[in-house]
């Protein structure tokens, strides 16, 4: 009986590890596609929503317009909702809070925009 319980526990742990590893790899895939410095809460929401959702579309819009936006907001965290910049700050927590207060029902796409000096 002990052997059976131990085997089941080990199998459950292996499945849980594989699940979390796959989520981590998918998060890395989002970073490769949408930019390296994405807020952890944005990554978590992307993992839930998937690559075809509104949040990913905001990330693609931000990536496509990164050069222009970096000229205006470089070296800062930028929050985008519906392909519109809704908050900018040097603090990732401040920009997240500002975006959530402006759009409480939506998850903002938050990422660090590098300036050419970063």
Give me some keywords for this one.
elongated, 5 helices, alpha+beta, 118 residues
Task: Give a description of the structure.
The protein is of the alpha+beta class and 118 residues long. The chain has one domain. It is 62% helix and 14% strand. The chain is built from 5 helices and 3 strands. It has helices at residues 2-34, 40-49, 54-64, 66-73, 92-102, and strands spanning 76-81, 84-89, 109-113. It has a 3-stranded antiparallel sheet. The longest helix has 33 residues, at 2-34. It starts with a helix and ends in a 5-residue tail after the last strand. The mean pLDDT is 80.
Concise synopsis of the structure shown:
With 118 residues, the protein is of the alpha+beta class. 62% of the residues lie in helices and 14% in strands. It is built from five helices and three strands; from the N terminus they run ααααββαβ.
